[in-house]
Amino acid sequence: MKYEAVTIKDIAKALGLSTSTVSRALRDSHEISAKTKSLVRNYAKDLNYRPNPIALSLKEKRSHSIGVVVCEIANSFFSQIINGIESIAYDKGYNVIISQSHESYSREVLDVDYLASRSIDGLLISVSTETNNFGHLQKLHEQGLPIVFFDRIINEIQTHKVTVDNFSGAYDATRHLAAEGYRRIANVSGSDYLTNTRERIAGYREALHDSRLPYDEQLIKYCIHGGKQYEEVEEVLDQLFALPEPPDALFSSADKITSHCMRYLKMKELKVPEEVGIVGFSNQAMTELLNPPLTIVKQPAFEMGRIAIEMLLQLIESKKPVKQFEHKVLPTELIIRDSSTGKIK
């Protein structure tokens, strides 16, 4: 049996009233008596009546829906961001529609087009690792759709943005490894045209300089798909450990890449931290339970989601065009554990 939602016409027919009377009663109009209002509301409650969101959106020119595009919901970092978004959105009367790009540019374009076609009031997006063309977002922005970027941003589009201090996070991680006696510190990153990748590489380089360690281009490897598949990370690690002077430490700048690095080191029977130290950007709770426990750069993901949705609602609900935008940068936290503290000096 096909489900059919209860409509105002159904209520009107059952109660012997006009549809306009039922509609006004549900809106608590002063034109309708208290007795009729009570009758209509009680009957509507018994039938589990809900206003048609499509009809409401046509009337109000608002859908009260927010679109969110992330690479993967299963990624703990992004799931925590979504929790932050929802903690504000639902209290403000907005529904959240979530789409996953799976680190694919073409999938991201489809996701964004679909959400826009559903008449969302605004869009929150962290672009995929493949996204180096942002015409699909620029077009919607120029058409007036409120957009806020978080984590992976596009600087060329003038709107609100919220990120972490990628430079400092990478700097602190690399300086820590150097202080522990590691001298060949490799950097395994996401795609090289992402803003957060470039910022983390810059922090890594500055830390090497301040630690009086040479910068070696061969020790930087990029994963164009963000480590989506283990084989992508395995390939770049094979290249690193085949060098005449292989790395004695790894700094991984993405959650999934970090997990795959740990898997690789275990499979190759490389002792952590005695032979290879490792620090990674990660928000996974399980990192504390690994053997050895993983040193991580933790990001305030929930707070990022909360700030991003507040920024978007400010754009949506502003009575006049917003012309001044903010880029909010949140601090990271280096949590030191055993994976980076056992180098034999």
From TrEMBL:
Residues 7-50 form the HTH cro/C1-type domain. The keyword DNA-binding applies. Gene3D superfamilies: 3.40.50.2300, lambda repressor-like DNA-binding domains. Coiled coil: none annotated. InterPro entries: Cro/C1-type_HTH (IPR001387), HTH_LacI (IPR000843), LacI/GalR-like_sensor (IPR046335), Lambda_DNA-bd_dom_sf (IPR010982), Peripla_BP_I (IPR028082). The keyword Amino-acid biosynthesis does not apply. Residues 6-60 form the HTH lacI-type domain. PROSITE patterns: HTH_CROC1, HTH_LACI_2. Keywords: DNA-binding, Transcription, Transcription regulation. One of its GO terms (molecular function) is DNA-binding transcription factor activity. This is LacI family transcriptional regulator.
